[in-house]
Amino acid sequence: MSFKQVTENDFKKEVLEAKKPVLVDFNADWCPPCQMMAKVVHELAEASDDYDIVSVNIDESPALAAEYQVSSIPCFVAFRDGKEVERQVGMKPRTVIARMVEQ
């Protein structure tokens, strides 16, 4: 299980250089759909050691949001070997989010 907050300072190490798949949850504290999806994200983080899940608060890390062209939140981006492989925006069922990292 792995879930942590990341910023511009540790995004490269925690996501781009990660040895296993990483799901990045771009969100904001003021976003009701983000708050609703937080439970799903935490449950997925506890479900397996085969992937990591990180959270990026777009208000605290606006440069990351801009670099990855996050214009709507919540925005879930799956990375493998340092490359984006899939993106989902908005509230999604747990199965959709899980499939992004469990492939």
Short structural description:
The protein is of the alpha/beta class. The protein has four helices and five strands; from the N terminus they run E-H-E-H-E-H-E-E-H. The protein has a five-stranded mixed β-sheet.
CATH architecture: 3-Layer(aba) Sandwich
Mean pLDDT: 94
Strand order of the largest sheet: 1-3-2-4-5
Taking the sheet with the most strands, its summary is:
5 strands, mixed
CATH superfamily: Glutaredoxin
- Number of contiguous helices: 4
CATH topology: Glutaredoxin
Report the C-alpha radius of gyration, rounded.
12 Å
Helix content: 25-40%
Number of strands: 5
Q: Give the CA-CA distance, first to last residue.
A: 17 Å
Q: Unreliable stretches, pLDDT < 50, 5 or more residues?
A: none
Q: SSE string, helix = H, strand = E?
A: EHEHEHEEH
Shape: globular
Strand content: 25-35%
Can you tell me the number of structural domains? 1
